Structure formats: structure tokens, C-alpha cells
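Help needed: design a sequence for this.
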């Protein structure tokens, strides 16, 4: 890009980002104190809630990574205008790696295969723990997952940072060269992570589609988050000049795509397992269709798919940022409900929402948002010397 009409300072995030960062930290600290109380007095309820919050916010982090690599693969102004939001999201990965540590201490509370007394009287669990589900394997694989995700995020952010410096050579070819294999590595690692951290809550049950629901859900969580952030930023410069209705429309179409993908994978899993009618396979659904949990499943079908699908069919709706933002935030909430429906029935036969199911995810979210907004204000909202930045900058500054 030659002769840009703006400089890096013109593209920095508005002061409101600092304000939200400070408020997020306060929320995180207050709810963290409450969470510690929950750990001390109700550890059996705390750790399932912690897993719920961890998976929800990890989903936003890795969803940002996946969309970022997708943008580098496909190009287009739709992704360039939100690229720095996505990059800020990926740089919360060290925080999520740190927040994984409490799960190691809570393994006996979460996983039946981590309880020696349960393993001793179950031959199938004995075989699983010897071959795969054991502490050393659980920890070792987690280290590999986070290491691969961290390398991908580090390289994409480092090369992007170089595009704020006019003196450095163009490096756009590197993004595509990394993003193709990177998407495969992300999907491979997250598939096994979903098996380790979530599906192994019911070690006698297996589903090959289950990890795909997590992959699609993570992208959907990140898209909802990005739309919410761009709505806040669009009230201030420079985003008010950079973001166009066409970009918003593209984001809405992406949300529609992944809403349909989530519904397709979720229904396919139910249909295939129910048609097979094998006791080991249907046990997972039987537990989630009784004791009040079936109402949560119907709620997901209606408000995670049907209602958003109808709204997102409207072109006008997808181009209206304020209305799209409300739907995006709602879908982020529904992603938590979906994770709640997948995780919590393992521990409660009857539908039950504990106070820790709210407190702990909010605590994790407070710290996550603190790191996110800290990352966001550290760089311009657009890589000024990316060759494609002219498509966004020139119309805004003529």
C-alpha cells in the first residue's frame, strides 16, 4: 500500500475500550472471590461450573483463531475490518492455558475415569485408563493442543504486527501458507480436546460427530462476540468510518451459515444414534431427554436454530448492525446453554441450575474481557500496510 492518508494513531481503538477493560476487571475480581467461596463450600458443584465457563470462553478464543485463518484463506474486506478484533481474541490464549490448570485439580470431581474406586470395579474403564484416559495422557495432550494453538496465534499476530510498519517488506503470502494447514491442525486438536475434556465425562459413550458440534459452536461464539464488539466500536472513530453495511451483511451471512451447520450436526448426531438404538449410544440422549433436561433441548432447537434462522433470512436484518448485535449476543448465550446441556446432565439427573453455573463463567469472562480489551487497544484497528487495506481506507477518507 503506497501513500496512506492516515497513520497508525488515527486507527487506534477509542478510549471507551479502556473503560470497558477496567469494568471487566472489577467484575472478574468480584465474581472470582465468589467462585473461590464456591470452591471451598461446594466443590462438587464448582468444578462442573468451572468446566462450563472454561469451555465457553475457550470457544470464543479458538473461534477467533479459526475465523482469522479463514479470512486469510479467503480474503475480503469482511474479514480485514475485524481482523484486529480477531487477533486480540487469539492473544487471550495464554490466559486460557493458565485457567486450564484448575481442571487438573478437579479431575476426580469431574471424570469417573479419574476415580480409582470407580475404575477398580469397571473393566471397560480399566481398559480406557490404560490406553488413553489417564492423568499423564490427559495433561500431555493438553500441552500439545495449547502449544499448537499458541504457535498458530503467535505467528499470525507477529506477521500482522509487521504490517503496521511501512519499512518492513510485504508478508501477506505467509498468512495463507500457514492458515490452510493451521485450520486442519486447529480442527484436529480441538476434536481431541472435546473428547478429552467433555465427551470423556461419559466414558462409555462415543460419537464421531460430537467434536464437530464444538468446532462449529466455537466459530459461532466468536462471530457473535465480534459483532457485539464491532457494534460498540462503530459508535466511535475510526470504526465508524471503516465498517460498512456490506461488511455487516457478510458477518450476518456467516452467522446464518454456522447456525445451520450447528443444527445439521446436532440433528445428525441425534438421528444416527437414535436410529442405531444401541444402549451404549442412546444412554447419553436418554439422560438429556428426561428429568427436565428435554425442555432445555427443545429450547435449544427453537432459540439456537429456528428463531435465529428465520430472522437471518432477512437481508435487511443482516445489514442492520444494532439488531444483528442483539441476535449475536443471544447466540452467545445460547452457546452457553448448549454447553450446559452437554455437560451438566452428567452430574444431575434432574434439571438443576446452581448459582455457580452463573458465577464461575462470569468470573472467567471478566478476566477474559480484561485481557481482550488490553490486547485490542495495543494495536491499530486496521493493519495499515496490508495491501488490501486500501479497499477500506480509501472510501473512508476521500
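Sure. Designed sequence:
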Amino acid at each position: 500500500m503506497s501513500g496512506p492518508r492516515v497513520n497508525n494513531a488515527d486507527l487506534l481503538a477509542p478510549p471507551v475500550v479502556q473503560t470497558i477493560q477496567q469494568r471487566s476487571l472489577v467484575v472478574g475480581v468480584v465474581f472470582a472471590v465468589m467462585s473461590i467461596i464456591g470452591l471451598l463450600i461446594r466443590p462438587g458443584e464448582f468444578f462442573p461450573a468451572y468446566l462450563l465457563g472454561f469451555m465457553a470462553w475457550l470457544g470464543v478464543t479458538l473461534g477467533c483463531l479459526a475465523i482469522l485463518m479463514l479470512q486469510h484463506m479467503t480474503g475480503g474486506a469482511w474479514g480485514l475490518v475485524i481482523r484486529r478484533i480477531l487477533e486480540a481474541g487469539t492473544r487471550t490464549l495464554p490466559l486460557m492455558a493458565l485457567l486450564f490448570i484448575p481442571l487438573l485439580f478437579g479431575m476426580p470431581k469431574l471424570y469417573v475415569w479419574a476415580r480409582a474406586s470407580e475404575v477398580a470395579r469397571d473393566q471397560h474403564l480399566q481398559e480406557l485408563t490404560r490406553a488413553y484416559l489417564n492423568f499423564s495422557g490427559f495433561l500431555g495432550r493438553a500441552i500439545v493442543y495449547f502449544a499448537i494453538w499458541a504457535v498458530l496465534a503467535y505467528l499470525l499476530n507477529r506477521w500482522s504486527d509487521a504490517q503496521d510498519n511501512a519499512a518492513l517488506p510485504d508478508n501477506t503470502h505467509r498468512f495463507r501458507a500457514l492458515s490452510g494447514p493451521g485450520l486442519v491442525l486447529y480442527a484436529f486438536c480441538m476434536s481431541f480436546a472435546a473428547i478429552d475434556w467433555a465427551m470423556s465425562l461419559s466414558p462409555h459413550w462415543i460419537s464421531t460427530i460430537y467434536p464437530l458440534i464444538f468446532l462449529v459452536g466455537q466459530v459461532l461464539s466468536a462471530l457473535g462476540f465480534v459483532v457485539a464488539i464491532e457494534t460498540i466500536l462503530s459508535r466511535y472513530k475510526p470504526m465508524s468510518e471503516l465498517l460498512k453495511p456490506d461488511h455487516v451483511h457478510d458477518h450476518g451471512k456467516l452467522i446464518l451459515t454456522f447456525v445451520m451447520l450447528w443444527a445439521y450436526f446436532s440433528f445428525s448426531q441425534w438421528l444416527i444414534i437414535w436410529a442405531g438404538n444401541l444402549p451404549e449410544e442412546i444412554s447419553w440422549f436418554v439422560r438429556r431427554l428426561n428429568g427436565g433436561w428435554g425442555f432445555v433441548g427443545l429450547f435449544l432447537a427453537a432459540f439456537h436454530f429456528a428463531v435465529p434462522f428465520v430472522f437471518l433470512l432477512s437481508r435487511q436484518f443482516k445489514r442492520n448492525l444494532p439488531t444483528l448485535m442483539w441476535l449475536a449476543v443471544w447466540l452467545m448465550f445460547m452457546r452457553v446453554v448448549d454447553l450446559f446441556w452437554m455437560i451438566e446432565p452428567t452430574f444431575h439427573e434432574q434439571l438443576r441450575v446452581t448459582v455457580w453455573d452463573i458465577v464461575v463463567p462470569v468470573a472467567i469472562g471478566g478476566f477474559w474481557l480484561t485481557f481482550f480489551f488490553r490486547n485490542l487497544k495495543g494495536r491499530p484497528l486496521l493493519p495499515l500496510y496490508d495491501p488490501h487495506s486500501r479497499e477500506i481506507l480509501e472510501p473512508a477518507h476521500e
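The two ends are 16 Å apart (CA to CA).
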